[in-house]
Amino acid sequence: MIGEGDKLADRYTISGTHQQPFLGSPATGRRIHLAGITIVRIAGGKITERWAVTDQLSLLQQPGALPPQFSR
């Protein structure tokens, strides 16, 4: 996490095991990772704005929830 002025930013990775069906893709038992970045603006000790980006494409590709033409 880094901060400057009234903004803070962090980059994160969430990991888990694909144990349940996901968007039509049966459970694979494989590890799944989701990466993202969040930026917040703080005013008066509270978060007043938030921007977030996650790698949704990768999240769908890992368990095979996309048709083959969209996979790596």
Question: What keywords describe this structure?
Answer:
single chain; 72 residues; mainly beta; Nuclear Transport Factor 2, Chain: A; four-stranded antiparallel beta sheet; 4 strands
Task: Describe what this molecule looks like in 3D.
The protein has 72 residues and is mainly beta. It has one domain: Nuclear Transport Factor 2, Chain: A (Roll). The protein has 1 helix and 4 strands; from the N terminus they run E-E-E-E-H. It has one helix at 56-61; strands at 2-4, 7-17, 31-43, 46-54. The model has no long low-confidence stretch (mean pLDDT 92).
Shape: elongated
**Uncertain segments:** none
| Portion in beta strands | over 45%
Portion in helices: under 10%
Layout of strands and helices, then pairs:
Elements: E1 2-4, E2 7-17, E3 31-43, E4 46-54, H1 56-61
Antiparallel strand pairs: 1-2, 2-3, 3-4
Characterize this entry briefly:
The chain has a single domain, classed as Nuclear Transport Factor 2, Chain: A (Roll). 8% of the residues lie in helices and 50% in strands.
